[in-house]
Amino acid sequence: MILDEPVVAATDWLLAGGLFAMGSRLRAGPRALFWGLAFVALVGGTRHGFRSSLPPFPLELAWRGALAVFGFSGWSLIREVGPLRWRRVWDAKLALYLAGVGVTGSFDFALVNFTLDAAAASFILFSSLPASRCFLSGSALMGAGAVLLGLRPPLGGFPPASVFHFVEFAGLFLWFRHFSARAANP
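Given the sequence above, the corresponding C-alpha coordinates read:
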Protein backbone atom coordinates (compact mmCIF):
# COMPACT_ATOMS: atom_id res chain seq x y z
CA MET A 1 0.00 0.00 0.00
CA ILE A 2 1.22 3.44 -0.90
CA LEU A 3 0.18 6.45 1.15
CA ASP A 4 -1.79 8.98 -0.90
CA GLU A 5 -0.82 12.05 1.16
CA PRO A 6 1.99 10.88 3.44
CA VAL A 7 2.84 14.24 5.03
CA VAL A 8 -0.78 15.12 5.81
CA ALA A 9 -1.46 11.62 7.13
CA ALA A 10 1.66 11.72 9.32
CA THR A 11 0.85 15.13 10.81
CA ASP A 12 -2.74 14.00 11.45
CA TRP A 13 -1.46 10.90 13.25
CA LEU A 14 1.05 12.97 15.26
CA LEU A 15 -1.76 15.32 16.21
CA ALA A 16 -3.89 12.33 17.26
CA GLY A 17 -1.09 10.94 19.43
CA GLY A 18 -0.41 14.29 21.07
CA LEU A 19 -4.09 14.92 21.77
CA PHE A 20 -4.55 11.44 23.21
CA ALA A 21 -1.52 11.93 25.49
CA MET A 22 -2.72 15.35 26.66
CA GLY A 23 -6.26 14.05 27.21
CA SER A 24 -4.91 11.19 29.31
CA ARG A 25 -3.61 13.74 31.82
CA LEU A 26 -6.92 15.62 32.20
CA ARG A 27 -10.07 14.98 34.20
CA ALA A 28 -13.14 13.46 32.55
CA GLY A 29 -14.75 16.52 30.87
CA PRO A 30 -11.72 17.90 29.04
CA ARG A 31 -10.45 14.34 28.48
CA ALA A 32 -13.54 13.61 26.35
CA LEU A 33 -12.87 16.77 24.32
CA PHE A 34 -9.21 15.88 23.66
CA TRP A 35 -9.86 12.19 22.99
CA GLY A 36 -12.71 13.08 20.62
CA LEU A 37 -10.39 15.38 18.68
CA ALA A 38 -7.69 12.67 18.72
CA PHE A 39 -10.18 10.25 17.15
CA VAL A 40 -11.03 12.78 14.45
CA ALA A 41 -7.32 13.28 13.67
CA LEU A 42 -6.72 9.51 13.60
CA VAL A 43 -9.56 8.92 11.14
CA GLY A 44 -8.48 12.00 9.14
CA GLY A 45 -4.94 10.67 8.83
CA THR A 46 -6.25 7.31 7.70
CA ARG A 47 -8.51 8.98 5.16
CA HIS A 48 -5.68 11.15 3.81
CA GLY A 49 -3.26 8.27 3.76
CA PHE A 50 -5.33 5.44 2.35
CA ARG A 51 -8.10 7.09 0.33
CA SER A 52 -7.27 5.15 -2.84
CA SER A 53 -6.42 1.86 -1.07
CA LEU A 54 -9.40 1.33 1.24
CA PRO A 55 -12.98 0.60 0.18
CA PRO A 56 -14.81 3.93 -0.25
CA PHE A 57 -18.02 3.17 1.67
CA PRO A 58 -16.48 2.12 5.02
CA LEU A 59 -13.94 4.94 4.76
CA GLU A 60 -16.70 7.51 4.13
CA LEU A 61 -18.79 6.05 6.96
CA ALA A 62 -15.82 6.34 9.36
CA TRP A 63 -15.19 9.90 8.13
CA ARG A 64 -18.77 11.00 8.77
CA GLY A 65 -18.63 9.35 12.18
CA ALA A 66 -15.45 11.28 12.92
CA LEU A 67 -17.11 14.52 11.83
CA ALA A 68 -20.00 13.73 14.20
CA VAL A 69 -17.47 13.25 17.02
CA PHE A 70 -15.93 16.60 16.01
CA GLY A 71 -19.32 18.23 16.57
CA PHE A 72 -19.73 16.53 19.94
CA SER A 73 -16.23 17.73 20.90
CA GLY A 74 -17.19 21.35 20.32
CA TRP A 75 -20.47 20.81 22.17
CA SER A 76 -18.65 19.27 25.14
CA LEU A 77 -16.24 22.23 25.13
CA ILE A 78 -19.16 24.63 25.56
CA ARG A 79 -20.53 22.53 28.42
CA GLU A 80 -17.10 22.37 30.05
CA VAL A 81 -16.19 26.04 30.22
CA GLY A 82 -19.09 27.09 32.37
CA PRO A 83 -22.82 27.36 32.82
CA LEU A 84 -24.62 28.32 29.67
CA ARG A 85 -28.03 29.90 29.92
CA TRP A 86 -28.88 29.02 26.34
CA ARG A 87 -28.14 25.33 26.63
CA ARG A 88 -31.17 24.31 24.52
CA VAL A 89 -30.05 26.60 21.73
CA TRP A 90 -26.60 24.96 21.74
CA ASP A 91 -28.22 21.51 21.80
CA ALA A 92 -30.35 22.50 18.79
CA LYS A 93 -27.21 23.78 17.00
CA LEU A 94 -25.58 20.40 17.59
CA ALA A 95 -28.63 18.61 16.13
CA LEU A 96 -28.55 20.84 13.04
CA TYR A 97 -24.80 20.29 12.72
CA LEU A 98 -25.17 16.51 12.90
CA ALA A 99 -27.87 16.58 10.21
CA GLY A 100 -25.75 18.88 8.02
CA VAL A 101 -22.53 16.93 8.37
CA GLY A 102 -24.41 13.67 7.82
CA VAL A 103 -25.59 14.98 4.47
CA THR A 104 -22.48 16.84 3.31
CA GLY A 105 -19.57 14.96 4.90
CA SER A 106 -17.70 18.28 4.63
CA PHE A 107 -14.67 18.99 6.81
CA ASP A 108 -14.99 22.71 6.03
CA PHE A 109 -18.53 22.66 7.45
CA ALA A 110 -17.24 20.82 10.54
CA LEU A 111 -14.34 23.24 10.96
CA VAL A 112 -16.64 26.26 10.82
CA ASN A 113 -18.86 24.63 13.45
CA PHE A 114 -15.94 23.87 15.78
CA THR A 115 -14.52 27.37 15.30
CA LEU A 116 -17.92 28.77 16.30
CA ASP A 117 -17.89 26.57 19.41
CA ALA A 118 -14.35 27.69 20.29
CA ALA A 119 -15.32 31.34 19.81
CA ALA A 120 -18.38 30.90 22.02
CA ALA A 121 -16.28 29.18 24.70
CA SER A 122 -13.75 32.01 24.52
CA PHE A 123 -16.55 34.56 24.90
CA ILE A 124 -17.94 32.69 27.91
CA LEU A 125 -14.51 32.60 29.56
CA PHE A 126 -13.74 36.20 28.64
CA SER A 127 -17.04 37.40 30.11
CA SER A 128 -16.20 35.79 33.45
CA LEU A 129 -12.93 37.49 34.30
CA PRO A 130 -10.22 36.67 35.06
CA ALA A 131 -10.11 35.04 31.67
CA SER A 132 -7.56 32.35 30.96
CA ARG A 133 -4.84 33.74 28.72
CA CYS A 134 -3.88 30.19 27.72
CA PHE A 135 -7.39 29.35 26.55
CA LEU A 136 -7.91 32.64 24.71
CA SER A 137 -4.47 32.44 23.05
CA GLY A 138 -5.14 28.84 22.02
CA SER A 139 -8.48 29.84 20.51
CA ALA A 140 -6.84 32.68 18.59
CA LEU A 141 -4.17 30.32 17.25
CA MET A 142 -6.75 27.75 16.16
CA GLY A 143 -8.82 30.47 14.49
CA ALA A 144 -5.72 31.56 12.60
CA GLY A 145 -5.12 27.93 11.61
CA ALA A 146 -8.67 27.64 10.27
CA VAL A 147 -8.20 30.82 8.21
CA LEU A 148 -4.86 29.51 6.92
CA LEU A 149 -6.46 26.23 5.87
CA GLY A 150 -9.29 28.10 4.15
CA LEU A 151 -6.88 30.31 2.19
CA ARG A 152 -4.59 27.41 1.25
CA PRO A 153 -1.53 29.57 0.53
CA PRO A 154 1.31 28.14 -1.58
CA LEU A 155 3.95 26.86 0.82
CA GLY A 156 6.60 25.59 -1.55
CA GLY A 157 5.10 22.13 -1.88
CA PHE A 158 4.42 21.65 1.84
CA PRO A 159 0.72 20.80 2.33
CA PRO A 160 -1.32 23.59 3.99
CA ALA A 161 -3.25 20.88 5.87
CA SER A 162 -0.03 19.87 7.65
CA VAL A 163 0.71 23.46 8.65
CA PHE A 164 -2.86 23.59 9.93
CA HIS A 165 -2.18 20.48 12.05
CA PHE A 166 0.89 22.11 13.65
CA VAL A 167 -0.99 25.36 14.37
CA GLU A 168 -3.93 23.42 15.82
CA PHE A 169 -1.59 21.39 18.01
CA ALA A 170 -0.08 24.59 19.42
CA GLY A 171 -3.53 26.03 20.13
CA LEU A 172 -4.76 22.80 21.70
CA PHE A 173 -1.63 22.62 23.84
CA LEU A 174 -2.57 26.02 25.25
CA TRP A 175 -6.07 24.68 25.94
CA PHE A 176 -4.44 21.71 27.67
CA ARG A 177 -2.48 24.11 29.87
CA HIS A 178 -5.71 25.93 30.71
CA PHE A 179 -7.56 22.77 31.72
CA SER A 180 -4.52 21.44 33.62
CA ALA A 181 -4.20 24.67 35.61
CA ARG A 182 -7.94 24.72 36.24
CA ALA A 183 -7.78 21.18 37.65
CA ALA A 184 -4.87 22.12 39.89
CA ASN A 185 -6.62 25.30 41.13
CA PRO A 186 -10.38 24.68 41.03
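The mean pLDDT is 91. Try to locate this feature in the C-alpha coordinate string yourself.
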